[in-house]
Amino acid sequence: MRKAMVAFGRKSLPLTWQEIDIDRDVELIRQYDVLVPVLSFGEQEICHHFFDEKALLAILNQNQP
Predict the structure, then answer these.
(1) Around Cβ 39, how many Cβ atoms within 10 Å?
(2) Along the 65 residues of the chain, how does pLDDT read in single tens digits?
(3) pTM
């Protein structure tokens, strides 16, 4: 997912994003354990296991000012 996000930022739209290690947070392990890697925007899950560019673009378009 990390490589896909970097590539997306280079070719489509530069983004600020944060990578979180869920192994340090019991609640995140409980919530996402088998879904890792997960890409989310706030509380909204965008995709898991594989990067979904269309889903990310849809979320970004919904949240434009």
Answers:
(1) 19
(2) 999 999 999 998 888 999 999 998 999 999 999 999 999 998 899 999 999 999 999 999 998 87
(3) 0.85
